[in-house]
Write a structure and sequence with these properties.
This protein has 365 residues and is of the alpha/beta class. Helices cover 39% and strands 18% of the residues. The protein contains 13 helices and 13 strands. The strands form three sheets. Strands 3-2-1-6-7-12-13 form a seven-stranded mixed sheet, sandwiched between helices. Helix 8 links the parallel strand 9 and strand 10. The chain is elongated, with a radius of gyration of 22 Å. About 2% of the residues have low confidence. The structure holds 6-O-phosphono-beta-D-fructofuranose (F6P). 6-O-phosphono-beta-D-fructofuranose binds next to loops. Its EC number is 2.7.1.11. This is ATP-dependent 6-phosphofructokinase. Pathway: Carbohydrate degradation; glycolysis; D-glyceraldehyde 3-phosphate and glycerone phosphate from D-glucose: step 3/4. One of its GO terms (biological process) is fructose 6-phosphate metabolic process. It catalyses: beta-D-fructose 6-phosphate + ATP = beta-D-fructose 1,6-bisphosphate + ADP + H(+).
Length: 365
Amino acid sequence: VKRIALLSGGGDCPGLNAVIRTITKTAIQKYGWEVIGYVFGYRGLYNNDYIELTLDKVEDIYKEGGTILYSSNKDNLFDYLVDDGHGGKVKKDVSDVGVANLKKDGVDVLVVLGGDGTLTSARDFSRKGVNVIGVPKTMDNDLASTDVTYGFMSAMSVGTEFIDRLQTTAKSHHRVILCELMGRDAGWITLYAGLAGNAGVCLIPEIPFTVENIAKAVKRRDEAGLPYTVIACAEGAKYADGTKVIGKIVEDSPDPVRLGGIAKQLEADLEKVIPDHEVRSVNPGHIIRGGDINAYDRILSIRYGVAAADLINEGKFGNVVTINHGEMGYTSLEEVIGAAKIGQQKHVDPKGELVMAAKAIGVSF
Ligand code: F6P
């Protein structure tokens, strides 16, 4: 190996920069390889648009959120929008252009930092004979193949701070405040931030809820001398009939999640069943994945990055770096993508220890 290339795809996630920095430093200092980074993910690979990654460029990005390589969550070279020659656009498999560019740029190994969509393309490039290593990215922490992904702890910490701050107004006005948190179809961020921030109710996709149950929980707290409740509500939370908190208000939208939550419908539903409390809803949205990354994710990013470089050195291509039971390891891209299919992501166990612990201290679901 003489030269490696990195790219980041999908939504930005705390820790991406720290991983880019770690791989670059390890590649240059430990192994003597050159490092380049394609910008805007696979689009950069298609357009042959890259920057040289050097020690001075990466030194200070250990705690910066986002990605200095930029990212795109749309561009898939196996199904890429190109001009049709008649003024329109058509989708085409242009992955051969990517493979040719890697050759032209003298890239021996492509390191892909991304979630399930980006890693699916990584698997497909691997099937075409490209030497690929994946480094899993998701602040949702829903990737089945690994215990914890970088970004989760940082986003969860910011979510916790939000809930902490909402306690103040809830308590002062005896209000019920809904705090909506990202996490797609998994409840990890909401459960962790909800527990850490002392939410009275956690609404997570894994445990469908009823407004009547929430009303009961609020009443129980009232009777216990706690006439205020902060509710941590996952963007993927569902009413018992399966309707999503978000879908219910923006169901006409072709892409409800993209509109950002707004638990307004739930706010209105709750006002009906707890007329003696004012109800408010707050949606920090992308704020939880922005800003500096926390100390835990800085260390995790170093571990993921060094393990990725070591895998390259060992020639173990076609794999994703993983962490299981505290040990760094790897799993094949084929297996990771198989397990990332809708419905097979890693979910909160409704009967698991964490939910039981939450219930033991009086948190309602
Ligand atoms: O997967 C990460 C995530 O932040 C989810 O929690 C959220 O549903 C989604 O991305 C938001 O995507 P976008 O930034 O494209 O609106």
